[in-house]
């Protein structure tokens, strides 16, 4: 990750329902946007054309669909996502090693000549999940730290490039899986901002200090009066605290 700038490691979430809203939002960044997350809402609303249009603008895409099904189905889906040429997509680690391996195998089989292989990232636990939910609703009796670390180890064993996790989990994940195992971390908020539906959160500066390779930032940038300036301020603050 040392060869990437802080700006290249900030993924802006395009959490809007239509192609027009997404492209209008991108335009407000005045050409400074390098990496975006396209999640379920936008992809299901706008389909593949939004991927093509963002790519034509030179923007890298994290396609956040969290695949989770039987291995054959996930493998076939991974083949299609690979053909789209996105930078990164994800699967749920809870689907098991065979499912993750099938996704990885189908990526390799469906690369076009000269195509860069998309990063395959595993979802450990959602940042909206806390230990109360983990124990009482999901039925997992272990601590959040223990289960996230266990899932990260499974993802590495299956050959994935990294995991999605809370920034708070990154030190343990890096300790268990190595510093080169990627961590993509949502749950980013201002210290005194609205947490919305997130439970386990940090500021951008804290996330990078914990060792996050990429951070996913949504409303704190996209709902700002001037998103481009907000993004620039975050980059500047992180560089000041982390790089100096």
From TrEMBL:
Domain Orotidine 5'-phosphate decarboxylase residue range list: 9-234
UniProt entry tagged with the keyword Aminoacyl-tRNA synthetase: no
EC number: 4.1.1.23
Cross-referenced PROSITE patterns: OMPDECASE
Matches recorded under InterPro entries: Aldolase_TIM (IPR013785), OMPdecase (IPR014732), OMPdecase_AS (IPR018089), OMPdecase_bac (IPR047596), OMPdeCOase_dom (IPR001754), RibuloseP-bd_barrel (IPR011060)
One BP term from GO: 'de novo' UMP biosynthetic process
Keyword entries, A-Z: Decarboxylase, Lyase, Pyrimidine biosynthesis
Residues annotated for substrate binding in this entry: 15, 37, 64-73, 127, 189, 198, 218-219
SUPFAM superfamilies: Ribulose-phoshate binding barrel
Top-level enzyme category: lyase
Catalytic site positions: 64, 66, 69
GO molecular function, one term: orotidine-5'-phosphate decarboxylase activity
Superkingdom assignment: Bacteria
Membrane-spanning residues: none
Record PANTHER family: OROTIDINE 5'-PHOSPHATE DECARBOXYLASE
Family note: Belongs to the OMP decarboxylase family. Type 1 subfamily.
HAMAP family associated with the record: OMPdecase_type1_B
Classification via NCBIfam families: PRK00230.1, pyrF
Protein's name in the database: Orotidine 5'-phosphate decarboxylase
Source species: Tepidibacillus fermentans
